[in-house]
Amino acid sequence: MNNTDNRFICIPITESTSEAFLSAILEASQQADIIELRLDYLSVADRSTVLSKLPALAADPACKDLLLTFRPRQQGGHQDLSLEDRQTFWRLLPPEVIAASRFVDFEFDLVESWDAHSPVPWEKVICSWHNFEETANDLLAQYDRMAATPAAIVKIATMANRITDCLKTFELIEHAKDKKPVIALAMSFAGVATRILSLASGSFLTFGSLRKGAESAAGQVTASDLTNLYRVTQLNRESEIFGIIGFPVAHSRSPIMHNAVFSSYGRNAAYLPFEVQDAGEFIRDFVRPETKKFAWPLRGLSVTIPHKLAVIPYLDYVDSTAKTIGAVNTIVVENGKLSGFNTDIVGAMKPLEELVELSGVRVAVLGAGGSARAICHGLNQRGAETTIFARDLIKAAPLAEEFTTKLERLDNFSGDFDVVINCTPIGMRHHSEGQSPLTAKSLLKTKLVYDLIYTPNETALLLNAKTAGCQTLGGMSMLIGQAVEQMRLWLGLETTFEVMRKALESRES
Fold first, then answer.
1. φ, ψ for residue 379, nearest 5 deg
2. Average pLDDT for the chain
3. Helix (H, G, I), strand (E, B) or coil at 497
C-alpha cells in the first residue's frame, strides 16, 4: 500500500428535511474532514432552505469542507433527474453557494456535457461514475477517460459481488498513482476492505456514514468506526493486516476485540471482516505469498463458518488439535507459509476450568455439530465423563463413537449432571432467540450451565438455569478466550483478555 498525504474521511448527509439536514451537518463536523451534502435527498423547498444557509455555515470555523452532490437515480441518487435538470440546477446555483463549497460532484456525463465551460471552477469538481451491477474489468480505461476531463478528481464506485472485486479497485488506485487523484471504492459488504484500506492505498478520501442507517451506499462503514475501530487515517503500507473470513461475516465481533488490542498496544495493524464465498480463491488471491494479487502485509486470519474445514487443503501445516476435530479457526502467515490452528477448544475450556475441575466431572453436551465436536475433544482431553444429547441420534452416533461418550436423545435429558454445555444454536439471536433447549425444571439437579451462544448475552437457557439455582457461564467468555489465543499465535501477546472484554462491553453499552 502507498503512503498518501491525503487522509480524508467524508460523511454524506442523507436526511430528507432541511432541519434534520442542517443538524446533521453540525454533527458531522465533529467527525468528518469533508461533509457531502446529498441535495438529491431533499425536496425543492428543503433544498432551497439548506442552500440559503450554506454561506454562513461555511464561514463557521467549526464547519468542515463541504462537497455538494445532486445525484440522479440511475447513478445512486434519490430523484429522477435528467441531464437537463442537473445542468439547470448547477447553472442556477448562487455564486455565494459555489464559493462556500470546497468540492462539487459532477457525474461523468454531466462533466462531458459542459464542453469545458463549467458553472463551477474545475478545480472544485469531482468527476464521478458508478456501476451498481458489477465491478467490470475496464476500470483502468474508465479512469483514463475521466482523468482526461478538466475535473480535478476522479471518483469510481462499483458493486462488489464477491471479495475478489476489491482487487480491481486496489489496482485502480495503484494505476492512478502520480496521476489525477482518485476516489475508488467497491460497494456492498464484500467491498468493505476498500473502504478501510483505500486511504493507505492512495485514495483521495473514503466515505463513512454519520450513523448506522444513514448510509448513502451499500457497505458504508460509520465514520466513527473508520476513525476509532479501524484507525484508517493512521494506516500505511507497513500496517500489518489481520481479519476474519466467513460468509456471512458482517455480524462478527472479532474486529472489535482485535482492533482494541492493536490500539491498546500501539500496534500498526488493522483487523478487517472479509466476506468470502470461496476460501480457496481468497487464499490464492489474497493470502499465499507466491500467488496473491494484492501486495499487503497480511499476517493472520480468523476463520469462521463455512470455511473452517474448507481452508485445510490450502495450508502448509495443520496442528494436531485442528486435524482431530477437522476444523481450523486460525491461520498464521509467517515466513511464506500458512499454518492452521484451532483455538476454539482452549477458548471454551479455559473459562470453564476456572470454575470447575473437569477430571471425572459428569458433563452433558447438547448438540452434535462442529462446536460439540470441539467441546467433546476438550472434555476428553481433560478426563470428563461426557454424554451427548442430540435430536438426531443417527447423525450424532459417529461423534459419540469417536470420543467414546454416551449418547441420549435431547428429549430424555434428566438433569443429573455437574455441567451442561449448550452447543446448539437454540436461543441465538436471529435464529431462535427466546427459546431454550432445556426447561428450568429439568435443570434442578445441574450445578453449572454453560451456553456457547454469545448473542444475546443472556439466553433463555441461562435464565432457566438461574431460575433452577445453577451457576451460569455465557458464550462471551469463549468468544474472548479463543481470540486471546489467536493473538498469542499471531503476535505472542498473552494478556489481552481484559482489553477485549472491555471493548465488547463498551460496544454493547
1. -65, -40
2. 94
3. helix
